[in-house]
Amino acid sequence: MSSFQARSPGFRTSWTRPSPSPRHTSAVDRFEFGRRTSTSEREPESPKQSGREYVGFATLPDQVHRKSVKKGFEFTLMVVGESGLGKSTLVNSLFLTDLYKERKELSADERIERTVDIKRNSIDIEEQGVRLRLTVVDTPGFGDSVNCSNSWKPIIDYIEDQFAQYYEDESGLNRKNIVDNRVHCCLYFISPYGHGLRPIDVGFMQRLHDKVNIVPVLAKADCLTPTEVRTLKERVMREIREQDINIYSFPDCDSDEDEDYKQQDKELKASVPFAVIGSNTVVEVGGKRVRGRLYPWGITEVENPKHCDFVKLRNMLIRTHMQDLKEVTRDLHYENYRLRRIQDETDNPDVKQERLNSIRKDSFATKEVSEKDRMLEEKEAELRKMQDMLLKMQAEMAKQQGASGSGSNMGSLADLATNNNAGSGDSESNMPEEMSDPNDSRSSTVEV
């Protein structure tokens, strides 16, 4: 170990795999969505470190960073909860956009006959040169019926379908441009009007906790006093532990993390479930314009940590743990689905044969497309060759007309006809069939 002691500060001296901290596992470490680290803020790099010559592999993080920023990022967020809990307002407040411009209010009769639906809204967001493809999956109608025994089934089917689509694309031949539509996070809204979790809340989380990262959210926290918020949080977390529900678990901090980050991580873990307030209205408080809600007895500020946990939820979801949510989805939930899929194909030969037939079909389709492209290229080459022949013939005719000089028009035509008859053996062999036709109008004009 003597050769590994002289290292630059911050370099790990052990070969153990670090915990999946969002600040170490991705190229997104170089920037946050609210602030991007500039080159001048980084530590200066010296060509020689501890007597060793500078090789240059220290620039690998910069290479990964540039490539990741150029490609862009994708994130899929699902919001689940009964109507009236402020799901749409919270999403618009989180990303400072309006994803539900075309939404219309339903009448009472339409709400009675309504079932659980799945609606996707995608939008491209760019911030300081970083592009994010945000997809929000809404579930209108969840928990609105009298009988909610199967209200989670469409949601489970949607998540499974996205896993299946990604599995098909990953196992196919064209793996270069795979679109990741897997659900990376599910914000589950808990009603503030009850005394803890309802049966539908427990049933939903028990059936989906092994398929998606569930982040419980206490909706409309302005309806409760601070004491009631703390009491309801403790009761919800106690019931989650009693029901053996695995919600999203924040990764542990590394020992070399700074104290500010450790304190922030500690506060995030203590804030679950997040008591949030959503608002798209701007009000004036003390000469400062802020987003909040105006009541006869006062103003509730959305981005005030003393009023709600909106800032903590936004920091967790966007600035600190977005990449970790994607990695947990890839390494845990998708791998569990992939393992079940492979076991089904192994135990059931029909499923395996169907999968092989699908791969062959994709292969044949790819070959057919390539064969069509080859035929089109051959046709284009033939057309270019014919155009070149016509250009040469026109050049020869122009040259012969110029050589006749001051002769009469009839004499030039006769000379041209004589020259064409003299060289008919060569020209007819090079000309296409439609040009060597004796009944063609151009040949009859020359003979006159």
From TrEMBL:
InterPro entries: G_SEPTIN_dom, P-loop_NTPase, Septin. Pfam families: Septin. The keyword tRNA processing does not apply. Residues 71-344 form the Septin-type G domain. Residues 1-53, 393-448 are annotated as: Disordered. One of its GO terms (molecular function) is GTP binding. One of its GO terms (cellular component) is cytoplasm. CDD domains: CDC_Septin (cd01850). Keywords: Cell cycle, Cell division, Cytoplasm, GTP-binding, Nucleotide-binding. The keyword Cell division applies. SUPFAM superfamilies: P-loop containing nucleoside triphosphate hydrolases. It is found in: Cytoplasm. Residues 26-46 have a biased composition (Basic and acidic residues). Residues 1-24, 401-430 have a biased composition (Polar residues). GO terms for biological process: cell division. It comes from the Eukaryota. Belongs to the TRAFAC class TrmE-Era-EngA-EngB-Septin-like GTPase superfamily. Septin GTPase family. This is Septin.
